[in-house]
């Protein structure tokens, strides 16, 4: 009887592994697991409170918005007013199961009001029986000092396991895939080091400018907005040693070790650019950064930056990590590119290009390796081609969850693996604060580059100088479009 039941179960499991689950089924399974998990099951009710919520939708989504609001309530109040938070707490307790519910607070707010809001949450709105968790959005401060002040303030109110510093890039499918690629495949382990890798390029490109958001952007700039967080997080996942396990602390311990091996960036290792209008372009592309009415006149804020970092440890010593990010460029793209060293003892008369492994984060998620192969035909000529895993081709019916969906689910689960820890944040600011302070003080004039271009040519020169070889003869073709 037992063996028959076991056999039936194994057959059912085998069937399940062969049938891909739909997106709703995946989340259904997760909810089921969470519901049955003893630690999660402290309370049947979970209340998600968004501070600073605003909604903009198109007419076609008006019906969905109405259905969404029919399941939610809105409480108006002032961030610095304790009575407003007492009113919120009274309302939460009036909801079904509210007195025992777990509470998740999402601070979709400017950093200027974090102090008041977090203090009032702690004073007035904490659940007495369920758990309490707070999601904080970037920017986490403006430099090392302000970040430390914010961290100290939050730590005085909440424990580290209650604080979730969200960087949505850590929720993206291909960013999370970096760990599996590295540590789940034997073929990459022996070559993932300074002996085989010539350089690593981490890129974030947007094909649009500030377009009315110049006031916010001018206060922070591209380094604070993208490089110090998104790109540095991806660098950590590329460079870190294998963690002892996939537990949150083990993974984040290894990321911190990487950051501690990186010296502060100097201005000589950086190229700063600012986009100007393209006279021959159309629409917004005719306008430069300084043409945005929300940008202060004569601003020297960079809209493009290339920076070279080095990880001074045994695995990576001497390998440049080239971080590139910018607005108003020629395409939308975020990717990690590992360029390998030249093949020693070349017998093909300099016809071989360097191998590359590329992890495309967005758009069109893909992993592909650029490699040399014999050109078909009678000649013995090598040509560049790729081994390609494009997600839309390989996983046709799989709908990838949005980054925020994954991360908010992680918060409900109590998993902090894909969130930024306080010591990790401190090290990230240590690396960039001296550079940011020098730029703020000296206001170096950024190099102009045309809207829709690849950015300043000086950035390419810097990459070439430190060892990246841009051949420009080969471009990956998305097979989904063929």
UniProtKB/TrEMBL annotation:
Bias type Polar residues, positions: 1-14
Name the catalysed reactions: D-glucose 6-phosphate + NADP(+) = 6-phospho-D-glucono-1,5-lactone + NADPH + H(+)
- Which residue ranges does the record assign to the Glucose-6-phosphate dehydrogenase NAD-binding domain? 24-177
GO MF terms, alphabetically ordered: glucose-6-phosphate dehydrogenase activity; NADP binding
Q: Where, per UniProt, does this protein localize?
A: Cytoplasm
Per the record, its GO cellular-component terms are: cytosol
Query: What keywords tag this UniProt record?
Result: Carbohydrate metabolism, Cytoplasm, Glucose metabolism, NADP, Oxidoreductase
**Protein name per Swiss-Prot or TrEMBL:** Glucose-6-phosphate 1-dehydrogenase
Organism for this UniProt entry: Notothenia coriiceps (black rockcod)
The uppermost taxa in this organism's lineage are:
Eukaryota, Metazoa, Chordata, Craniata, Vertebrata
- Which gene produces this protein? g6pd
